[in-house]
Amino acid sequence: MKIIGLAGSIGSGKSTAAAYLRSLHFIVFDSENAAKSAALEKGSPCLQKAAELFGPESILPDGTLNRPWVADKIFYDHSLLLRFEAIMQQQVRDDLLHFLETQKADGTSAVFLDLPLMIELGWHKLCDSVWLIAVPDEIRIRRAIARDRQLGKEIVMRRNNTQLPVSEQRKYADAVIDNSGPFANTKAQIDEQLRKLQLIK
């Protein structure tokens, strides 16, 4: 089974690339949705650890995570943010390893991993190939702010600053896909890489 990682900074369009791969019937592990599910699932170990970290106010009456309250707390306390991220990352790692075992057992020919901080957290070491979805910084930031106006420029910039510069990410990439133009161009580049891996004709 081939494991292909999708790397790229905030606003680069990894999720859009992943959606295109799904449209081609490839299986994509989406860590963001996996982490959200883990954080929101009642009684999950992840939720219990979050409650221990933040206190009872972090849990809503229905037993789910009070995400706006938690977001406000970690925005002003970087050490708290790091501890919370460690909880989430461990949950994602557990979910990812289970996902890979299941897909391998099912005889899946290839899977794609859509993981934030792919290189920074060492996820790329699990991959046979890493595709970097690359976009100039100015375009990335503008897209990220437009995509989720609730975040605001300050939070987008803070998240951006936790990620390696694209110039550094390129050193780990087996393929660089330019997503700065029309998505038709991006799709053509993805198709080319799929053909190189003999995943499509």
Automatic annotation (TrEMBL):
Q: Does the keyword ATP-binding apply?
A: yes
Q: Per the record, what are the reactions this protein catalyses? A: 3'-dephospho-CoA + ATP = ADP + CoA + H(+)
Q: Does the keyword Nucleotide-binding apply?
A: yes
One Pfam match, given by its short name, reads CoaE
What PROSITE patterns does the record point to? DPCK
Any Gene Ontology CC annotation: cytoplasm
Enzyme Commission numbers on file: 2.7.1.24
Q: Where does ATP bind?
A: 11-16
The entry lists its GO molecular-function terms as: ATP binding; dephospho-CoA kinase activity
Ordered alphabetically, the record's keywords are:
ATP-binding, Coenzyme A biosynthesis, Cytoplasm, Kinase, Nucleotide-binding, Transferase
> Which CDD domains does the UniProt entry name for this protein?
DPCK
Among InterPro entries, the record links this protein to: Depp_CoAkinase (IPR001977), P-loop_NTPase (IPR027417)
Tell me the route in metabolism or biology where this protein functions: Cofactor biosynthesis; coenzyme A biosynthesis; CoA from (R)-pantothenate: step 5/5
> Which GO BP terms sit in this record?
coenzyme A biosynthetic process
Subcellular location(s) of the protein = Cytoplasm
What is this protein for, i.e. what is its function?
Catalyzes the phosphorylation of the 3'-hydroxyl group of dephosphocoenzyme A to form coenzyme A.
Which family is this sequence assigned to? Belongs to the CoaE family.
Q: What is this protein called?
A: Dephospho-CoA kinase
What is the organism lineage in this UniProt record?
Answer: Bacteria, Bacillati, Bacillota, Negativicutes, Acidaminococcales
Q: Which gene encodes it?
A: coaE
